[in-house]
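pasting for ref
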Amino acid sequence: MATIVVMPQLGNSVESCIIVEWSVKEGDTISVDQTLCSIETDKSTMEVPSTDAGTVLKLLWDEGDEVPVKDPLLIVGEPGEDISGLVPGGSSEEAAAPAEAEESSDTAASAATPSFATTTASGAVSPRARSLAGAKGIDTSAITEGSGPHGRVIERDVQAAIAQGPALTNAARIQGGTAAEGTGIGGRVTTADIAGQGAQTTETPAASSSAPVAIPAADFPGATESTQLKGVRKVVAQRMMESLAETAQLSYTVSAKAEGLMAMRKKLKNSDESLGLSKVTIGDLVGYAVVKTVAKYPAFNATLENGTFTKFEQVHLGFAADTPRGLLVPVVRSAQAMTLKQFSAESKRLASEAIGGTISPDYLSGGTFTVSNLGSFGVETFTPIINRPQVAILGVAAVTPRPVVRPDGTVGVEQRIGFSLTADHQVIDGADAARFLKDLVSAIENIDVTVLA
């Protein structure tokens, strides 16, 4: 009997997933736990295993589609089995046939447009058609009617547009005329191309001295590439705009002496391997000092959501991680209860999994305070944006040499590290922010004592 495999709930905070690539096709025989496809959530990339064995009778989505969790993903059963009852609007013959061309996959997507479909609007463009059109500079809106289901523009429609010859820009279409080839974006014929053709065919020897010279179209604006924001990038964009629009953000900048920090890092690096501290970094030391400081300021270790201000007893420290898929913020849970060794090890584990795309989505939420460290890139100061619904975030800058006037009046140089605290002025006043930074500076400059507290 045919069964439906659904998009699994991969983490408590995941609501939908984007299909990156199918690992099976219609007609394949699959087994339980076999990988069906790779997916991308707003936080990580992972694989979806099959919960049933049998023959793949229908793929209900295209690559690039966003599928809500627990919605039908594909249908598995016996070859030739009638699945019309599982695919509203479809027939058993159509559903059981393997997908041999894009028209088949488009039909499958359209046939599977009950409550879990993303879009069936007339004039829609399939992912493959959109990709080809973008690469060849074809305006899909100029294709009056697609040959796919419900007028959907599919790959063969774009191929047909390409075969018709170079497309005209709007201005060239209004002016009229033709040209063998275009110099515009994607090979489009521009007004300059038409003018050039006219100059070649109408110019006479008598008029050549006074006729305007046809100047080849310049490469303006040059090659471009346009893509829709999706996955992590789309989520980051939305959250950053929401954060700036819905919070009263104000930043405060200070610096601290870094000699003690650097000396502690050197001492730990050269310590006995059996202690497990040799891999502790300056970033770990700073993060640990932040945890100790935040624990003293409940108003900073908090969230503000829908008018409710919630303070947390435990410090769940988020840290910005640069990954191949974009910005992720893993969370070190209950950091206030950890030793330096434990904090360093957990931070490295989470960072490694975030970069590798294997981190559980549950470890990418629930933070109460965030640190963004750009010191390794040499950034000397910046203004971090609050990771809502949190109310504060700390930016960590590079250690840099700065001039200093000694007590005896002479001028010298000392190593200092910069910090930028961005706080939501709705719940945190400037004086409180100043006190927080003062205590943080003290914790950094006396790091040898801080790690023992």
